[in-house]
Amino acid sequence: MKTIRLDENTKKNLLEDLLKRSPNNYDEYTDRVNGIITAVRKDGDKALFDFTKKFDGADISADNIRVTKEEIKEAYSLVAPALIDIIRKALVNIENYHSKQKQYSWFDSTEDGTILGQKVTPMSCVGVYVPGGKAAYPSSVLMNIMPAKVAGVGKIVMVTPPGKDGKVNPGTLVAANEAGADEIYKVGGAQAIAALAYGTESIPKVDKIVGPGNIYVALAKKAVYGHVSIDSIAGPSEILVLADETANPRFVAADLLSQAEHDELASAILVTTSEELAAKVSVEVDKFVAELSRSEIMQKSLDNYGYILIADSMKEAIETANDIASEHLEIVTRDPFMVMTKIRNAGAIFIGEYSSEPLGDYFAGPNHVLPTNGTAKFFSPLSVDDFIKKSSIIAYSREALEPIHKDIIKFAEAERLTAHANSIKVRFED
């Protein structure tokens, strides 16, 4: 891995380099994505079926686009019972964690007849996109569906691309059924996002679309935002390990590669105050790459976006971590909880040498759908909050309004909004 001593120029160049990975920089795909969306909006199911044949090689029609109970039953027979058991254990943890995020309506009243409050309402219908193709990620199915379920969403619609045989990965189907998906459709790519955003003869329009996908999916979500809500525009995965001389170099190297194996655009960064640790981690990384599968992807990821950064002090190391605002941040230092209190920007924070990133990906309970590409400075992990709406409640009696009605009239008149002022005046004409 590239080893660099930190300074202001190093940091500036690094941040610019990492931002190149953002989906916002892939404008050459925009026209193609917009063409797909326009076709689906205009031709509905026909466009869906044509695109599915073109991109996935599958013959999908109105008769087989929706996954049946028989297909779900078949999926259970094809998935190892041990994996089904693990999925169920993970779901318990995910549900328990997200249940603590629930918000409730509240009202506050006074004796003069004023009632103010906030009404919390679950969304009626949400869409969950699940990638298919080369890999299947049942864990992402759980993470996207469960917070919606906890929030009380009325209908959860899942879409995922089929294989050439017209079938969906059995692990994906089992995870969706266990988590509580109401409807599952065999369609992927930008065309699936368009179908969820506008509706077709087969697929209902939803209020919000969540879930990761390739660049076409990311740009499609960006294009339909406003017609529906979305969770975020997800970029490639990333990890930053913040460590001092007490860290185990073999553990650190293993954790860096846990994200580098995702994608050639994935980022794996170690920020450390120890030159000795830096050297040992680099050696361990090379050993692991030589013996693990997906070594070609890992090596390209490390060559492009892998860094070992040496800081002069822990203060500088923490500032760098906050500037990068990584999706996953591991803290492996002498006093990791103290360091954690100084972290402002991170999607998920893993504390201590036995809290490695895959623990969060699969089992601990917190959501693994996290902000990427520095957006942890203003975005949060997917949560129950993403699947609710809040309405303000205002109720005044005449007795409550009378003492303040002239103030409201004057405020409205100051803005030259006479109809606003009149709406208050008419209530006190007598």
UniProtKB/TrEMBL annotation:
InterPro entries: Ald_DH/histidinol_DH, Histidinol_DH_CS, Histidinol_DH_monofunct, Hstdl_DH
GO function terms (MF aspect): histidinol dehydrogenase activity; NAD binding; zinc ion binding
Gene3D superfamilies: 1.20.5.1300, Nitrogenase molybdenum iron protein domain
KW NAD (keyword) present: yes
Record note on cofactor: Binds 1 zinc ion per subunit.
Record's keyword annotation contains Thylakoid: no
Database matches in Pfam families: Histidinol_dh
Binding sites annotated in the UniProt record for substrate: 237, 259, 262, 328, 361, 415, 420
UniProt-listed Enzyme Commission number(s): 1.1.1.23
Catalytic activity field: L-histidinol + 2 NAD(+) + H2O = L-histidine + 2 NADH + 3 H(+)
Physiological role: Catalyzes the sequential NAD-dependent oxidations of L-histidinol to L-histidinaldehyde and then to L-histidine.
Family statement drawn from the similarity comment of this UniProt entry: Belongs to the histidinol dehydrogenase family.
Descriptive protein name: Histidinol dehydrogenase
Native source organism of the sequence: Anaerobium acetethylicum
